[in-house]
Amino acid sequence: GNIPTLFHNTQLAFQLAVNVQLPPEKGGLGGNVLYIDTENTFRPERIVQIAKALKLDPEKVLSNIHVARAFNSEHQIFLVEKSNEIIEEKNIKLIIVDSLTSHFRADFTGRGELAPRQQKLNKHLHMLQRLADAHNLAVYITNQVLMDPSVMFGDPVRASGGAILAHMATYRMYLRRGKEGTRIARLVDSPGLPEGEAVFKITEEGIRDP
Fold first, then answer.
1. 150: Cβ–Cβ under 8 A, 6 or more apart, which residues?
2. How many structural domains does the chain have?
3. Residue 143 is part of a domain; what is its CATH number?
4. CA–CA separation, 63 vs 11, rounded Å?
5. Rounded Cα–Cα distance for residues 43 and 10 (Å)
6. DSSP secondary-structure letter at 156?
7. How crowded is residue 85: how many other Cβ atoms within 10 Å of its Cβ?
8. Span 139-190, pLDDT tens digits
9. What was the pLDDT predicted at 165?
């Protein structure tokens, strides 16, 4: 079998969508997933591969992932605002938004649109935070990175979404390609952990140590 060539943060989303269904003694939360797909990147066949590697029933694992396709930023906001019912009904313990800012960037173009875009994004992030607090669940959001041509020294890559996103996220990770097919995850922001890096591989069975 093959691994679809998707961004590594999407591959991590697939792994989390399966792992969260494991019982707590195996590192999961014994819960289900609300997966908000903004770029049509959800791949059921990857979920099947990862579930089989963990000796789980792929059909059951897939049925516990509730995928909602968001077609623009307004629709994305609406899906999150209306998710209270499904969270309680379906024992949702993880919300995935893949990716967070793509629709906002497409819907609000031009300099004059930056302030209203950031305002909407801020409201959207606060809603996700409220859901996490109210229902004791985890939220995983993927995001694009942009090249900043003004950076002469250091890393010219910065996250889309600006300071609002940096402020709202509890843990922020920056994923990049490493050597010989590996990937590197760098923890850039955390309330209780120092900055650090870990190397991993994306395999047919999911995310693994190299």
1. none
2. 1
3. 3.40.50.300
4. 19
5. 10
6. -
7. 8
8. 999 987 655 556 566 554 455 556 667 777 889 888 888 999 899 999 988 9
9. 73
